[in-house]
From TrEMBL:
Gene3D superfamilies: Glycogen Phosphorylase B. One of its GO terms (molecular function) is glycosyltransferase activity. This is Glycosyl transferase family 1 domain-containing protein. Keywords: Transferase. Transmembrane segments: none annotated. The keyword Glycoprotein does not apply. It comes from Candidatus Woesebacteria bacterium RIFCSPLOWO2_01_FULL_44_14. InterPro entries: Glyco_trans_1 (IPR001296). Residues 190-344 form the Glycosyl transferase family domain.
Length: 370
């Protein structure tokens, strides 16, 4: 059986790309089709061993951040990709849609959906473009047609798989399609191993891209006011300007670490007294699970996918909002609870990479596609 994989674009190596990496390992002969690949990017390095085929528009949209304002080209971008020779296509789709490609009469398509495009349906995105009136006018026109394309191409998918119950509700709401929940793969075993014989230190930790909508500024303000140590790992993406604002807010007890290696990340997870995840309407959210796998409890916003991974009082604390006082109250409550490392890691194993592989294999097998 000939299999092809499809992904929005390869520019960064985030949660969606980690899912793609595991899918690529499951289907080692499958080429990866994508809108564009940025040479020498973190994503390019992670997929250097795979055959990557870019759309005919890649030469244009890969430069700088043009892929965002040129999103009106999405229907043409995906229609330029011909997958009619494949028996099975698995598309890893989110903000760049990754559907609408040419398929054969017998081609079956499975969509692993990280989320319907957030910018199309009113969810907060990493950069608040809506504050610029020319962008609002542009988006009003372009997004109308993109929603039509998004819905139409969603009907061409044979089987929908989603990364959370949260996203399953979105797929039903916006596409009127039922889906199967298969939680994404988390490096649980590696994190459990990395946390062995590690002594906890007195700091909270955040791992996130330095963009808007992550609750980073509120977390820094909360930490500065009460003198709590906070370490933040992650690099700035796009034109967000978040790092500059954090630099202006922080004091000596707050460290901005920038991009760190996986090993450094694992150590930071394991040594932290607690982890914070404050993104609003998060699709799934891998980082809290990674923290729990390292034996570290979580303070998370009671929103989106965090509700499916964080058990209040057992594996972490769910906060109602990201106001500074709410975060500080959560920190105080956090210190009053005696956390069970074994319980945290046992819970995290429900989201392991091995479990993901098994569930994907079984899903494909039950469909009689392999």
């Amino acid at each position: 059986m000939k299999v092809a994989l499809v992904h929005d674009y390869l520019k960064e190596y985030g949660g969606a790309e980690r899912v793609l990496r595991v899918l690529a390992d499951l289907f080692p002969q499958a080429p990866i089709y994508t809108a564009f690949l940025v040479k020498n990017s973190t994503a390019a390095k992670q997929f250097a061993d795979r055959k990557i085929r870019q759309s005919s528009w890649a030469w244009l949209i890969k430069h700088g951040n043009l892929y965002s304002p040129l999103r009106f080209l999405l229907p043409s971008i995906w229609r330029s990709i011909d997958l009619s020779d494949y028996d099975l296509v698995i598309t890893s789709c989110s903000g760049y849609i990754a559907r609408g490609f040419v398929r054969g009469k017998k081609t079956k398509v499975i969509a692993y959906c990280h989320t319907p495009p957030r910018f199309l349906y009113g969810y907060q995105t990493s950069i608040n473009w809506q504050k610029y009136w020319p962008v609002r006018v542009y988006a009003l026109v372009v997004n109308h047609f993109l929603r039509l394309f998004d819905f139409t191409s969603a009907q061409e998918v044979d089987y929908w798989v989603v990364n959370s119950k949260n996203v399953a509700a979105r797929v039903e709401k916006f596409y009127r399609r039922e889906s199967t929940v298969i939680y994404p793969p988390v490096e649980v075993e590696r994190l459990v191993k990395a946390s062995q014989k590690v002594k906890k230190e007195n700091y909270f930790f955040i791992a996130a891209r330095l963009v808007g909508g992550k609750g980073l500024e509120q977390a820094v303000k909360a930490a500065v006011e009460v003198g709590v140590k906070l370490k933040i790992a992650g690099e700035q993406a796009g034109w967000a300007g978040t790092r500059k604002r954090l630099e202006e807010l922080k004091s000596q007890n707050v460290e901005l670490l920038g991009r760190v290696s996986d090993q450094e990340l694992f150590n930071l997870y394991a040594k932290a007294k607690g982890f914070m995840a404050l993104e609003k309407d998060v699709d799934f959210g891998m980082t809290p699970v990674e923290a729990m796998a390292a034996g570290t409890p979580v303070i998370a916003l009671n929103s989106g996918g965090y509700r499916e991974t964080v058990i209040d009082g057992k594996t972490g604390i769910l906060v109602k909002n990201t106001k500074v006082r709410a975060i500080q109250r959560a920190m105080k409550r956090f210190n009053q609870i005696k956390w069970d490392k074994e319980a945290l890691q046992t819970h995290a194993k429900k989201f392991s990479k091995e479990r993901f592989k098994k569930e994907i294999k079984n899903f494909v097998k039950k469909l009689g596609l392999r």
